[in-house]
Amino acid sequence: MALSIPALKYGDFRAFFIKSITLSLSKDIYVYDIVGYDDRKDCTIQVDATNNKILGQSTQVLDYDYEKDASLNLKKTISRQEANEIALKEFSGGTPISWELTDDNNQSIWEFKMIHGKHKHTVKINARTKAVI
User: Fold this and answer.
1) Which letter does DSSP use for residue 132 in this model?
2) Residues facing 26 on adjacent strands
3) Is pLDDT of 63 > 80?
4) 49 and which of 30, 61, 99, 109 could share a cystine (Cβ 3.0–4.6 Å)?
């Protein structure tokens, strides 16, 4: 199942290449922080994960060249839910506190920050092959 964030379908952001998507708790709500770019500018957008409303966005002139092949292909990426299930098997009893999907050297990687009691753990998963890294 491909990753789907409804707010990505709105506004000018849909034309951008996506470099990373992070989901974390901010001021008592979960917020997606999405970083992308096009041929002229970088863009960051914040989306409320509970209602898909855009909370803010910013753009700036592109300050370096991205490789378009290195951007995320969300159609070939496992969902956060599927990656979450893999992470929970890897760190049994853990509770995810943040999720990040990034492109790292042409690999789509899910990174989960998890806690269990006083223990913190990071689980990385290849978002295409489902392999734990």
Assistant:
1) B
2) 29
3) no
4) 30
